[in-house]
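1st attempt posting a full record on here, be nice pls
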Amino acid sequence: MSRVRTMLVATLVVLGLMSGGAAVAQKEERGSVQREVLHELRMLPYYTVFDVLEYKVEGTHVTLSGAVTNPTLKSDAVNAIKGISGVTEVTDNIKVLPLSPDDNRIRQAEYRTIYGEPQLSKYGWASVQGIHIIVENGHVTLKGDVDNAADRNVANIRANSVPGVFSVDNQLTVHGEH
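the predicted structure (as tokens):
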């Protein structure tokens, strides 16, 4: 009886380790898909500081969201994610911003005002800028990550100083405060 119990316990331990190993493999695969999605989105040729692309990975399903100024970027993003190994379904919730000469003027002014500030210029050095400026019908949304609360506040003050802006929604996050 003792020998049977030992065999049973050993079998349960092995099965437990196998299922735990499967969970770890699943988690690693999900992390791999997330890294690949991020990489593909950042590599899109028309992705600018005036666009924001966000995503959520749930198993093999990826949901894309955000706002873009160019409809081609929207379709390129969806197609790039569909091509990732391990992704079986893509939900497209990306909004294409309306064409507007006033919004274009505000975008350019916001860019110069924010990235022209010496304290914030460091966020413009990366291939994908750290502060994204989304303008829709005169309303500005700031998205991205900054190093500290002071940078977040300066970006907000600078964005609010641009003529013709109706409102600023500062959604910048400080690294480590997510």
